[in-house]
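Lab notebook, bench 4. We co-purified these components, and the gel suggests they stay together. Before we commit to crystallization screens, I want a quick structural picture of the whole thing.
Request: model the full complex, all chains together.
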Amino acid sequence: MNTIIYAVLFYLLAVMVVGSAAYVAVSKNIVRCAFALVYTFIGVAGLFVLLSADFIAATQVLVYVGGTLVLILFAVMLSSRISDVKISNRSVQFIPGFVVTCCFAVILIYIAVSGQWPIKDVIEFSPTTAAIGNSLLSRWLLPFEVISILILVGLMGAVVIARHKINSKGDAK
Amino acid sequence: MANGSYYNSFYLIFIPLLPLLGAMINGFFGAVIQTKLDKFYIHFVAIATVVTSFVLSLAGFIKLAADDSVLAIYTNAWTFLSIGSLKVDVAFILDPLSAVMCLVITFVGSLIHIYSTGYMKDDEGYWRFFAYLNLFMFSMLVLVLADNFLVMFIGWEGVGLCSYLLIGFWYKDVNNAKAGVKAFIVNRIGDVGFVIGIFILFWTLASISSGSGAVYTPGSAIHAPNSYASLVFADIEKTLQDVSIRQVFVAKTLFNIPAVTLICIALFIGAMGKSAQIPLYVWLPDAMAGPTPVSALIHAATMVTAGVYMVARLHFLFALSPFAMTWVALFGAVTALFAATIGFFQYDIKKVLAYSTISQLGFMFIGVGVGAYSAGIFHLVTHAFFKACLFLCAGSVIIGCHHEQDMRKMGGLSLYMPKTNLAYLIACIAISGFPFFSGFFSKDDILYRAFINQNMVYPGMGILIWGIGMAAALCTAYYIFRSYFMTFTGVFRGDPANLPKESPKSITHVLLLLAFFSAIVGFSDMPEIFYMPNLFHHFLEPVFESSRGLLHFSRGSHALEWLLTGLSVMLAFLGAYAAFYLYKDAESRLPTRLLSFESKPVRWVYRLIYNKYYIDELYHITMVKLVMAIRLIFNWIDQHIIDALVNFAGFAGKLVGTVAGTADSKGVDGMVNATANTVFTAGANLIKIQTGRLRHYLGVALAGGVILVIVNYIFFN
Amino acid sequence: MMPQMTPSLVHFLIVGALLFACGILCVITRRNAVGVLMGVELILNSANINFLAFAHFSSQSLQGGIDGHVFALFCIVLAALECAVALAIVMAIYRNFNKTIDMEELTTLRE
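Here is the predicted assembly.
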């Protein structure tokens, strides 16, 4: 891939990801937050493409943008009266939170910059889907199965939690 | 290490694994088995697994004893973790030391399992009890068989957990649950010491690189290919046998304190918690809330001796630090005497035995502290037998007297429970050190070695420790016979319509068997003066080989040994006679007489001892004060940083108002109240630090992490 | 020395770090429970960027490279699951705490 195009794409996507993520973190309107999140997710998917992770990028778009985000939007709609929406996502104690987060970000970036990461010599771009499929059904078969069961249990749990109204004594009726 | 090799045997893993299997069967299916089938299957599973692991231990023991070329039996189950050069295996090792421990644990454990079938017969939590007991056996066996610190720590925490579960076995009574929690928390204090000890040890070893005393740099422990950092006991021992490395190791300091001393003290704090030594002994008397077989198994014979075992296992470290050895021995001696005196005026039969256990553990620590490791372990073994016997007799008595534990309501039981009486008497004789019973040999060995040892930092310390030990031995004979006379002689003082009766056979047979062993087990390690081979000592010798060159004992003579032995026998008889004189027919006016004594100090001392030196109260007061102080600090932070001035103004106004108002209306007297009110107000405000808001918790945790990184960067970079 | 401009491992790590910081900021300052969840999603995404960046730039073998992808995949799946469960909890909270999902009012943890 052409290095310059690669760099331009990277910086564009990076700005998009970080900018929209920052918007998610500071915006006062929860619906706008949710839409900014779409841009973050799509940007992250773009970054994944740059990292030669085609399959993961596709999954990211499908699962996050198609699934998770719709779920979040539903929750927003169900839990707030629409008239409240404008003020429904206020921040509290923003300044101390911001200071702590900035310090933390500085530390993380310092580690990222100063770390002696091993770098491989030839960086290649090759399709990964087949390799991931093989890997999931051989080397990572057990975690794969465990996660399948976990999803089943989690979804049932979600249904149970969301359906039952719990009265003040704590038992479901 | 002496000449010899490891003998690989996969079967070793079954010694701990079988009880775990039993625990799983009873834990998962016990409730169903008990209701659908029969209780028989529950205790059949529990007892069969423990007995099988006893047989396996015995086989291992015989292999070790018979074949001199086999140093230890070893098995490596799987690799637990592997980070860089650090590799930790789940590996078990059966060397003479762990073989002795295994034998004691599985043998006494089997007997107590059998006993429990009688004791817990009518309890609806029957399956739960046996599942816990088996789980305990598993953890304890992992603890003693571990070949490295990490696996040992798993066992260490496991026994703590089981102890907690079993103390609070009858959790419906809130006091029992509280006792369980207390044991857990006090143990946790010790565990922190243990973990810190492991950390410092690892750090110190990692900072030694081959050839020179290189400086530690962060990360080098993981990457250095020829670092000595290891968590395996045998590796560390081997490393430290090299004189040049040992010198570098001993010269290492941390905060200007020799690192090895720090390590040993930290590890000893761990041992203190688990083995109930001053000042962390407070949980053990409360632990008597559990069922009596539990008290016998966990809080007398096995778990509480884990600390002693750990010190003996790490002899090669402790031998390098005379300072730490001195403190171990001194703490042991003081605990022995202190706990023995508390036993004087207790009326609850289990409490007497609990304090007796603390006192006997003190003796073991004298043994391992002065460098007489085999003597300390020998006392551990004999103690396991006679103390288990005493506890199980107490359990038998408690059942016989219809769940009465107060000795003032017993008496004359020798008529109604002759077998229990016999067993208890033999165990009493054994513990107080009458000639030719087990306690006599083990205790005398410890005290004699304390007398002649030269490993203490201060000269004459050995004799001081010996003196304290002798006094404790005298007290032991007194309090244990006091409990015997109060319980078994005279006339029955309970409800005459409800006379006690002898326990079932599953109980009495176990009692007599244990009593038999309490009587004879001492012959396995007779002192030299009887011109008999001391088998036990020889058996353990290879384990303690490496530290032998570091320990010094003055050349005692047979005359001295005879003299000291004679003296201790006299003290034993004196103590027993004093108990006989004062509590002959279970009647004593001693407490009332002491209370009516003219001189105030005597009464004061009696009260002090009767109330167990007010230690619990002291902890309560200091802890409450401490928590209050911490709350005040947090309150300050809350007021100043989080909600800033508004709350502070309100708080100050309220405070001033409270103080001024009270001072106005009530004058000087009111000042006292004002102080109290201030504390209350502070407390009420202070609760704000616990906001219940997750983001506060997360934010503070993050800020803490940031501060740690910054501090680390400033000071260590 | 000029910092290197062509995107390398460090660049991706920095994007990950910034995304993570945004997520943390979101989690600790939002009042709306759904907003907090969005922050959690951001954090998980930043972790994924790191996984894939290391897989792409650092891993020596092809197999190791694929391991990073597999982890990212697991991570996405778990994030979706977490989202479902957490939103269910939010709905339960909404019904049981007087029709609110304001984190400031959910302080029963202190009791």
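Helices of chain A lie at 3-26, 30-50, 54-79, 94-114, 129-137, 141-163. Worth comparing against the SEC data before the next meeting. Chain A has a mean pLDDT of 81.
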